[in-house]
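Researcher: For the record, we're logging two predictions in this thread. I'll number them. Prediction 1 follows.
Model: Prediction 1, sequence and structure:
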Amino acid sequence: MNAVTPITGLRVREAGAGDEARIAAFLREHAGATPFHRPEWSKAVEQGCSQKSHTLIAEATGLPLPFRGEGWGEGAVVGLLPLTHVTSPLFGSALVSAGFGIGGGILAATEAAAEELATAAINLAQTLNTPSVELRGGHLPRTWQHTTGTYANFARDLPASDDAILKSIPRKQRAEVRRAQTLGLTVRTGTSEQDRAAHYRVYSESVRNLGTPVFPRALFDAMLDQFGVDADILTVSKDGHPIASVLTLYDKGTAYPYWGGGTTGARALRANEHMYFELMRHAARRGCTRFDFGRSKFGTGAFAFKKNWGFEPQPLTYAVHGEARETNPMSPKYRLQVALWKKLPLWAANRLGPPIARGLG
């Protein structure tokens, strides 16, 4: 928590459209803020997956003035908890912070504000008749059930020059990047319909091959529309055919490649190696100084891939109040379903997947 003037009173309520500028000011001040905390994220999830968002804010009352920091004062936002009410006939329901994100938990200027937000989330869950609240990162109440060891995150500083970026990659992986540069691959970045369609074709095949249902394309369109200049797509092609693509968010000098993958033919062409190296170069040119590779499950190929780039895993701890859902596709519970999904024709997976995936949260 930030060391600031004590707050003598707090009020927690659900935010409205008129609070967005004050929320943005709070996020600029808080070092733990991520794209998943931004109102744009919650709006995109609501638009793309038809899952209702509820953003809780803690406001200071009885606050001595002046109060240090941009945007602070009587009634200032001193805590934030974006929640998505995820409902699914297959997986049940939960209040999730943040829905469809890997972070987005409680941000607060004081311990008291954090605890008030946690209590308000429990009360909201009861009002909505949903059995649990899931927090991903941020302040995790001590009395909630904590889970560590399923996921790790990978992030590090991003050098400014192309040469420094290449040298920052371990020798063996650097050789793979150099090999990719000889295979006639082309790179395109943008947010046009061409970029969006190429990304969805590639990404949907990638997740089908992993045995998991694909999200609705409407979710990706909504993210790009909501984040505007803070989001784009980078696609790698061979002979005009897209084979690897990633949708990236940019926030406070950090690049967050979030939804990315490659087709069956991408591996032989080192398309993923080329894609992430080119994305690092692209992010540096945009002024980013940090690259957040995102989370991966321990023991998976994606986990090993990110380590090969020289990123050190940082175990993630999540917290749940109430009855936890089981949505991890690596669970033995879903072993048969995953195996069968991998065998589906892509057209069938793309038709059946979105109604299922929009309930994962």
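Researcher: Logged. Prediction 2.
Model: Prediction 2, sequence and structure:
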Amino acid sequence: MTASIHVSDGVADSDLAGFLSDTPGSTPFHSAAWGHAIEQSTGHRWHCLAARDADGALIGVLPLHHIRSRLFGSALVSSGFAVDGGIVVSDPRAIAPLADAAIALARELGLPGIELRGGALPDGWAHDRMSHLGFVRPLAADAEAELAAIPRKHRAEVRKALANPLDFSVGRSVADRAAHYTAYATSVRNLGTPVFPKRLFAAVLDQFGEDADILTVRHDGAVVASVLSLYWNGAVMPYWGGGTQAARGLRANERMYFALMDHARERGCKHFDFGRSKTGSGPAAYKKNWGFEGEPLSYARWAEAGEAVRDTNPTSGKYALMVKTWQRLPLPIANAIGPMIARQLG
């Protein structure tokens, strides 16, 4: 460990919040709100490694969830159920001590590996800068400018969506949560993946308070698309979204994301963070159609000698049959057993 830098497991929520607000590269997945929400809703314990200098000033953090899974393998993950997390520092001298402390914690817990999603990359770890892209761009000044920022072909799709008889609402109520789960659960079943537990979405909404909400699109009163979004440092992140079978024909997703852009602008947001997608995937192409340029994301893994890195990628060949089977399940069955599987993914 670098001389004069001390790393401990644990930091006061208020100290963490202050550090993250002042440090470039922080994300909602570094926050205590995210850490507590995942622990409360899934049972995966949250550790937050904190690096301090000789004067006791906080100079770096590494939030980690202890993901326990018999199906997919256990690991320390930064951060659990997130697309980012990783090491964030105000002083690069803290990177190595935080990485070393994470390895020590993994060994103490008897875990074979560590996964860092984003953040600073420790020396000596396996690095991946090719598999995923992040999509972020500034919000335009108003709705007309936003339309103009969308490439011509997809702009026509958005205009068609705006002309369709669709209504939308934004909220955090029990009804909003139920509407979101209806759309999201249907969407992920159709993709062949198990749905997360309802309590995960509820915990995130409760922990983030006004910094998270749900936007739902309806047609003739029926839910057709919905997205749960996070707000962080002037950016909106549509994180968990999906639609029913009717969504595509109605272009409900186009209406949903365009309405979210307007809503975020009214909240004072300056950027729209469309999240990550696998390089070369359909979702990546969809985001490019909206005028977003993908930027490579950096990931790092450490594995104990002789241990294999766990595979939780739903597009992996080892899960192909499972995906096809899941897509054919009746929705009530998928919703009943899906959360028991999905909570182990992390």
